[in-house]
Amino acid sequence: MRQYPEGGQGASRRGFGGLRVWVLVLFAGYAAWYWFSNRSIDPLTGEAAVIDRSISPEDEKALGLQAYREILQQERPLDPSAPAARQIAGIMQRLVAKVPAVTDAVAAEHGLAASHVERGFDWQVSVLQSDQANAFCLPGGKMAVYTGLIPVAQNADAMAVVMGHEIAHALLRHGAQRMTRGRLEQLGQLAGAMSGMDQGTLQAVMSAYGYGSALPYARSQETQADELGLLLAAAACFDPAEAIPLWQRMAQASGGRSPPEFASTHPSADTRIQQLQALLPKAEAYRARFCTSAPSPAVAAR
Fold it and tell me: Which of 6, 70, 75, 166 is catalytic?
């Protein structure tokens, strides 16, 4: 075996290897401290959530408003007086009216008090002309529904399920949670680069992290929003059972182009249907508890 004198090439390699380990250890320690110091129990899920304490609901609201304005400049909103726009605005009003009562009830199930981030929201919904069968609700209550969702939803009950789901993302502060996780991911990439990890190894590590942690985490957020959104729709006097045929139609509309669940940020349609079916008794109980008589308007086609 070839020997190197003290201070020669072998010592240099050993020193660099030791430094690389210490860089990773230090970054791992900081990441663990950051994770636990920003961890709390979400009253709406009863589960641990990590939100950087420097990200306030007001910061989220400002970012949401900026994104919303940019989207409205790029898209073609329907005239607010159009029948579909009026009906979707009515659905949102009914959902929003039930947010305080539903969030209080859900938080009480976990022995906690709701934070009521919605008190600072400025609710608004626009209907955007697009073939996308989609909708979103940004932090701060700015929402959009694409006209492509209307023929898939087919009725106000199914539309309320989708809109309730999107509103739930904002109530659960999922955007702030994703921002926090993004900061940790950047920290991990920086640690790998500073430790001298080659690009191929770093990509392999981040890929494994994606499949093993990031994607399951995103799917869990979708499941949380499905549950809270369904309860919200039921409390607003919409029929929660319409969630089942809705997701059957959504699966048909995708034409089998959806990626397999393990490689997706969303649960598969089959998984969603099973989970929603299991939630129907609870949703019906919320409907009986919170629903006051209200008609369900039809959603007009484009």
Answer: 166
Q: Enter the pTM of the model.
A: 0.82
Q: 6 an active-site residue?
A: no
Per-residue pLDDT, 82:
95
Using CA atoms, how far apart are residues 145 and 129, in angstroms rounded to an integer?
9
Residue closest to 226 by CA, chosen among 168, 186, 187:
168
* Lowest-confidence pick of 155-159, 174-178, 196-200: 196-200
Range of the domain at 189: 41-290
| 90 Cβ contact partners less than 8 Å away, ≥ 6 residues apart | 297
Please tell me what DSSP assigns to residue 213.
Answer: I
Flag whether 12 is in a domain: no
Alpha-carbon gap, residue 105 to 100, rounded angstroms = 9
Q: Which residues of 80-107 are buried (b: 16+ CB within 10 A; e: fewer)?
A: eeeebbebbbbbbebbbebbeebbebbb
Over residues 48-65, the pLDDT tens digits come to 999 999 999 999 999 999
Task: Please count the structural domains in the chain.
Answer: 1
User: Which amino acid type is present at position 221?
Assistant: Q
Percentage of the residues of the chain whose pLDDT score is greater than 70: 74
Q: Which residues contact 185 (CB under 8 A, 6 or more apart)?
A: 206, 209, 214
125-144: average pLDDT: 94
Q: Looking at 11-161, which runs of residues are DSSP E strands? A: 39-41, 48-50, 124-128, 135-137, 142-146
Average confidence score pLDDT of the chain: 83
In a domain, 302, yes or no: no
